[in-house]
Every structure is written in structure tokens, then in C-alpha cells.
Protein 1
Amino acid sequence: MRKREPCAKDHPPDVIHCQNFYTAKYATTLDAPRKVLYKENFETLLLRRWAERANPLVKPLIRLERKRTLDFELKSCLWFNEVATISSRDETNLKEAAEGRPEISRHLNHHLQTILPSIRLKDYDPSKVDNLDSPFPDDGRKKLVFTGSFNYLANVEGAVWLFDEVYPLLPSDEYSLWFVGQHPDSQVHALHHPPMAYVTGAVPSVQPYLRHADASLVPLRIGGGIRLKILESMALGCPLVSTSVGCEGLHGESDPARWKIADEAEDFVRAIQETCAQEPDREALRSWVIERFSPERFVGEMESLYCGPSGTIS
């Protein structure tokens, strides 16, 4: 932080963009005509959902942390000209949380909007992946892939639930689980039981895993925001099974999900089996992502946020 202050003084920024509330504090010490906060998650919601499933002994500590986090999340919004959430659900949750705090509520009513995320579609081009060898053994099993950073609480909890509650209901000689991603913590490492389950750790590229998998799984039960892993999977034409929390913010009545959603272990198993039994329409899955989450759309909306009412960046 000390290095940023003289740099900003010598080269005054036109806009300060803070990504997530962890970096919001920078806005209090750096000056710029425009300050923008982009929230990939409503962290208070993650803590609330965690408390609902946590050991009773730690629930009071989580609730205390939730209160502290909520106070900071709401207060920090006042430090910015504009605040953007990653989904309309998070926007609604943030506004509801601010009820009873008039100054923050007024600010959000005028300076909060949703800007859906994007992914680098060219990095998830099936034509560039099809010539790569499959990373999976040729053992006749259906390959079920869960990608992410496995030191992140929501992913750890989801991985353990998937292995302990869902997988035992599947024919173990017909399916294998693949936990693909960096920094697996001890709970996730313990799930490595080939040929039933594999924990890969960091891999050079997740694309071959998603392209050659029979299904991509998003077994999240806590968390918020939007799971970019869903967009990455579908951009590569990989069919998907998710919990309702895992795909929150990506579908609605006017735009129904193109994947199966299930929250109970038995229903999740049924969704996996039905998904793997069907021939996926890979082109339709990719088109759904392109139509809604293109980089061009995202860049244009962010530029408008940076420019503000003037229409130009000072």
C-alpha cells in the first residue's frame, strides 16, 4: 500500500477500480475523480450459509464474523461513486441488507447496478482443445469434474459433500470424480482414492478436463456471486449439473437454465445419471455463453461505469 500512494501521487489515476471488498480500503487513501467497486460475491451471504451448516460449536464465531463483515461491506460502498454486483441476486441481497441504514440505502439506490461477468472466450474455444489428448485414463468410467481452488471454503465444503453424500449413491465402477484445481487443503487431499476419485492439484490447463469430461459438477451449498466455472464448462460444450446455490444468478423465469439443478444427494445423483445418458448439444451450450457473457459486452458496461454521467473518463 505504501508503494501505491506515491505512485498515485506522481501519476494521478482517472479511475480507481477495486475488485471485491477485500481491496475496498484502498479507496480511502487514494484519490481519483471516479472510484468503482466491483463485487464478485456478497461475502456476508457466504458466512450466513456457512453458519447454517457449520458445527454448532463454531456457529457463534461465524455469526460474529458475519456481523463484522456486513458492517464493513455496507460501509465500504460509501467510498465509491459506483458499485457493481456480479448478479442481480447479489444486488437485491445487498440492497435488502442496507435497509435500516438510510445513508447507505440511498447511496445504493442511486449508485448500484449489476454487471454480469465475462470469460475470455478464445481461451475456451473447443477447436483449440479438441486436438489435445484426454487427461483421463481409458477405464470405461464416466468422468465427473469439479474445478476450482480447493482452499476456498465453498469449494471444500462442496467437494466433501460430493464425495461423502453423492458419490456413494452412484455405481462406483461406472463413475469417477475428478477434483481439478490448485491448493487442495487437507480435507480435499483426503478424497483422493483412484480409480474412484482423483485430486489433481494445480494443472497446466483445465480446458482438456472440461472438454473431455462427461459432466461438470458444481456441488456448492454455500457461497454467492456467479460461478465462472459454469461459463467455462458450457463454453467448451461440457454438460453441467449444479446445486441451486452453485448456479445462482445465472438463470430465471425468462431465461431458464440449460443444465440440471438439484440440491439433495439423491436428486443430484439422478441429475448426473440423466445428464451422462444424453448426447449433449455442445454448440447450444457454447452459444448460450457467447450470447450473454461476451468480453465485448462486459468491457462496454465497465467503461460506462468508469465514465459516469459525463460519458468520458476525466
Note: The chain has a mean pLDDT of 92.
Protein 2
Amino acid sequence: MKKTRVRKILAALTAAAAVLLGVTGVMAGTMQICVSDMNFRTGGSTSAKKIGLIPSGSVVELLESSNGWDRVAYNSQVGWIHGGNLSDISGTTMRVTVVKGYLALRNARAYDSSNEIGKLYTGDTVKVQNTDGKTYWYVYAPSLGKSGYVNKNYLVYANAGTSGEQRTVSVASGYLALRTGKAYDSANEIGELYTGDVVYLQDTSDSTYWYVYSSKLGKYGFVNKNYLSGNNPPSAETRTVSVASGYLALRTAMAYDSSNEIGALYNGETVQVKEKTSSNYWYVYAPSLGKSGYVNCNYLV
């Protein structure tokens, strides 16, 4: 009787572990990284309707695993992907992406100027140590030599979007919307892209809407391909950043103003000169940021 009872207990524990780990061996309820491009479906079957594509390097939340399939949350949608293609995000290197200014490293999980212990700029990397918080993750920042909390919404997988061919946004006015679906609908807009912004192609099978990655926004989504131009950034004069300290700001305008900063370039980084706009500011493409903008040409050699 005792042996039977022990076997039942062990069987129950094994079943519970299977629910938590799923068939993939990955803990449910945790943030994961897709290790390969995955079809995102409405159900755990190849016959289920395809919602879209989750590109390799995308961060998802694993909700459950069943019969060789993983149910995940991605881009505010819930669906299924084939199992065995997720890896725990802890210990993974992520890249900072902010439209302007900096991402604060904090000593607490709260938006408060008093808890800032460092500043991280677009292109800086961090190593994820804990993802328990809904908004704030605990990371190590090599550039600062410190650990602390950052808002996870400004982090992207360090290798995300680097494998796709590039295109440049070109709109006569306004912006090009990044969308969650292949439709012109204000409800599906998740970001704004402006002339000169760069996107990385992920899926070009549709006749109108292409699936892209925007390093500026740190997001994947659909854009109207008719507002994308060129192939990879054209060959241009290459210059190297040379600053005595700090960084050279990439800007949206030809003016020294903290509000127009969209990236930070450091000593030794290169830029491609697209236009020598004035005696002080040139319009350049920065490969390390995946962005175009203005820089003070006096700090280029």
C-alpha cells in the first residue's frame, strides 16, 4: 500500500512538472526568445489559421505547452507555435533602443528620478539577469559596470533584425505606420516611421504589406511597402567618429538640443555620409544604430 501511494505521489509530481515545463522543458509563465522564425497560429496544429510570423530573436511569454506546441503571448496577441524553439531569456544580451534621450538604469522597479543610477543609450547592451517584473527587468550593464532595473519595453534582442535586407522609409509628409495587421486601420498602429528611418525585411510575400523589424522602435510589424525605397543603404563616403569623451549625438535636426537626440555614437564607430548639409552638420547613416540623422561633422575623421 505504501509503495502504491508513493508511486501515485511521484506520478502526480511528474504530471505537475510536465504542466509547468511542457514538452519543451521550458518553464511556463516566463519570458523566452524564439531561436528560429516561427509561424504564429490560432491553435496548436499546422492546420490552424496563421496569425503571422514570429521572427527569430523575438521575445515572447510562454503561457503553456501541450502536445508539442507552445502557447505564447507576442505583440499583444496570444497564439501557438511549434514546440522546441524557445530559450530562456535569462543571461541573454539585449540592446537598448530609445527614440530619444536615454534609458535609465535604476535601483528600484519604479519611474522615479531619485532612483536613477546610470544612463543607457541606443546601441548599448545589457545582460538580462531576472525577468520577474511585468515592466522592469533586472540587468547588468557592461558600459556602466553596474546592475539595476530597466524598462523592458526599450530592450530588443541583440541580434534582432540584423539578418534581413534593409529598406529606407520615404514619405512625402507625415509618417509610415507600423501595424499589427495587413490593413489600413488606425486601431492596428503600433509605431510611427519617418523619412530616412531604416527597417529590416522579414517577410515580403504580401503584395502590399511587408513584415519588417524597426530598430528605431524595437518592434516588428507590417508596413505598406510602397513607402519603402532602395536596397541596403547605398555606398557612400565612410567617416569615423572621434570624440575626446562621451558620445556624438545622432539628431533629427541640425541643432544642438537634447530633445532631438535619437542615438549615441562612440569613438571608433563609423557612419556613411549621405549629404554634407552644412558647414557643421552632415546627414549620415549609422550602421550601429540602423538609423539616419544629423551629426556634428567636426567630430568625424
Note: Residues 14-26 have pLDDT under 50 and may be disordered.
Protein 3
Amino acid sequence: MPQMVFKRYEIKYQLTEDQRARLERVMETHMRPDEYGPSTVRNVYYDTPTYLLARRSAEHPYYKEKIRVRSYAPAESDTPVFLELKKKCDGVVYKRRCTLALQDADALLGGTRAPEGQIEREIAFAASRYKGLAPAMMVAYDREAFYARDDHEFRMTFDRAIRCRCADLSLAGSSQGHVLTPADQSLLEVKCAAGMPLWLVDFLSAEGIYKGRFSKYGAAVAWRLERERAFGSLPALSRTKRQAPRPEGIRIATRPTALARVAAIA
């Protein structure tokens, strides 16, 4: 059964193709590939019309949270998906998630479905605090995941071709969108409950690779606002639109000019 509650550190690094290849060779004696193999992760992030969640996250506060629906394959209205509340407090990531049909996950966030169980109640309460919460962005990426041979809780993921779109906010069909990251780079995320193993510390030190900040959703919102500035207004977030029948190089910091435009909306 998939894990539904997480408490861990998530540390991000930007890797070139050569660095990734060298790291994967070192990992062979310490890590195992995830049982599900390579996958395309699809997310629909929810936010307010003024992008309140994105704005708060960009300020790097002591506490922040995101609400999203995630699937690992195309999802129709009756397909089980993960509904997730991801919180970060003082550098520690706390994630709560549950499995629901896609239409039920959307109804729960929209306040038209009563929550069942503790995790659903927590997510529904978080969603109720944000006026006008609605689907804001689809973000997808190609992922390869690994876990430690001696500790299944220690995980490493490589994300490539991080992409987004602000129209057709559906998990069905194609995952295509505007690509936010260079084709020859990967985003490494190290996920651990405590410290990193020495073999990984030694590798990162020898390669001169340092941790950085990169928010996939934050970068996607920055792209949307830059596009709006260049081409004019885009459609506002709309729950009504979301409920209609569904048709069949990495930068370690988001651009401040775009995020300033988010703040100016409020």
C-alpha cells in the first residue's frame, strides 16, 4: 500500500547529464530503482485567483503549503489519483495524501463532497481556508526514482523535462506543456528523514554540487505571468471550467520580476 503520511527533508540539486551519469554509477552499490520504474508524474496545482499559495511559497516563509492532485498515468474522472497536502515548516516537509477518484478529489476541494477519514478532513480544512481555490496549473515531468538498499525511507529522484500549461488543466491525455528546464539537465531531489549517507556527501563535495531552491509550481506561475505580460491577459482561474466534461536548463530560483507581478494582483 502506498505511503500516505510523510515527514522528511527534501534537498534539491541541479545536475548536468555527465554529473548524473557519474552519480548513477556510484548509486549502483547503494540504491535500487523504484519498483514502478520510470514514470511521468502529472500534477494539477490548486490556488486562489491571486496565486496566494505561489506568492507565499516564493517568499520562503517559515511555513508554507501546497494543494495538488497527482497521477502517474493519464486519469479520467473515475480514475484513482492522489490528493495531496504538502506542507513545509522550518525546512521539514510534511505530506498528507489520500487516494480518491479524480472527480471526488475535485469535489472535496470544491466543498461539494464531505471528507471521510482524518487525512481527507485535514485536506478539506486546508482547502476551505482559501477563497476561490481552483485548478491553477498542470505541471508534469519525467521521473526516475531510487531507494536505498538498506533504508527504504531514503529516496532519490531525477526529474527531467519539467513542463507546465495553464489551459486544459486535466490529467487526461497528453502531458505536453511549456518546458521549464534545459534538455541536458536533471533536478535531483534527495528525500531523507535524517542525514545523508557519507557516500553521497563525498560525491557532491567532489563534484562541487551545491543544494539550491527550485519550485516546479513557482516556476510555472512565473512563466504564466511573463507570458501574460508579453501577450496580454490570460483567462482567470475558474472552478466552473474545471468541472466541465473533460476532452479526450534548470534555474534554482524563480524570477523575481514575475513573482512581483503576482503580488501586485492581490
Note: The longest strand covers residues 134-148.
Protein 4
Amino acid sequence: MLAKFLEDIGRFNKASLEYKEILKEEPKHTFAILFLANTLFREGKFKEAEKELKRTFSLEPPNKNTKANILLALGNLYLQQQRYKEAEAKLSEAFSLEPPNKNTKANILISLGNLYLQQQKHKEAEERLNEALSIEPQDKNIIISIHYALGSLYRRKGDLEKTKERFEEVVKSAGVIKSLVNKNRFAGGAHFHLGTIYQRMGENKKANYHFKECLRLIPDHRKAKENLGET
């Protein structure tokens, strides 16, 4: 599908136009609406994305998994706008459907974990993220995103050893998975956080290595540039 390809390579505006063309022919195409909403979300067009997602409910989603994915998308949309109560309500409803797909269930738990992390509810965040990991989702991208979220959680809690362990897992996994979505963002971010850890430990050689790797993957990472100059 051309629209999905355009979305995957980050050409969201053109992807949106392609999905709209599909919907002219098949106005009740639930997945096209869901994908359109996702591209609108990634363009920052939140109101339009919300309108499209809510429209799917009038089409009677065919199964639990599809409905759960729609609720998950709405939850993420509200989370991005810091509409926390609405986000929690949609994500909790999605999880209560008990979607049979492991990836869908894990993604819901990750979003709940990130929701609680943003609200400084560290215990709840850790519980949801570890539960997501225990599901053993088939998609390796999801597993890496769980490790990244847990690394972020432990960093906020000040647990350097657990933070290092999780971000090292992200770097290791990203290096062997060719199809990793947002590979540079995950791996680059993990390298940056590992660099700050080694910097705090006084191991400047290791810190420099990770800051340089971060900049190789994310060339405009301002903090990595600043920290590299300090070591």
C-alpha cells in the first residue's frame, strides 16, 4: 500500500492524502481510517485525528483487537496532549477488552506505563511495563520500547545500575534488528543516557563513546554535543 509506505518513510502529508483517496472509494474502511488518524497524529493535527478515530465507532469495529487498537490510538492521542484522565479511561477500556493479540495488549500496557511515568506514579508505571514484558510480544520493536521506557523510569528514580542495564539492552537489540522502527531514536537516546551515566561515574572514555554514537544516529542532539564537550 503506497500510503503505508509513505507513512513509514515519514512523508505524513502525502500519506494522509493517499488514505483520504482510499476512503473516497471505501468510506467504511476501518483500517484506512485508523492509519489516517495515525498520520494526522504524527503531523500534530490532533483534532483531525481525534475526529477520525471517533468516526470508527459508528462503523462497528469487526473484532476486539481492532476496537482495542482504536481505543489505544485515542489514549495515545490524549496522552500526547496531557489529557491524562481521558487517556487513562481509553487505555483502561482497551485493556479491559482483553485483546487476543499479544502485541496489542503489550502496546496498551506500555502506553499506561508512560502515562503513569509522566504523572510521577513510578510504582504503577513499573508494574505496567513489567507486565508488558511478561506477555512476551512477538514484535521485537515492542520489546525494545519496553526496555527504553523502563530505562527512563529507573533514570527518574535514580537507580543507575538498572538504568544502565535497560539502555544497554536497547543498544544491543537495536544493533541486531534491521527492521527496528525509529531505530535511530531508540538507539541514539539509549547511547545518550548511557553516556550521562558513565560521565557521572567518571568514566569519560566510555561516556565519549556513547555521546559520539548518539550523534552518529541523531546528529542534531544538542545535549549530546554539549556533554561531549564537557568530558
Note: The CA atoms of residues 66 and 106 lie 14 Å apart.
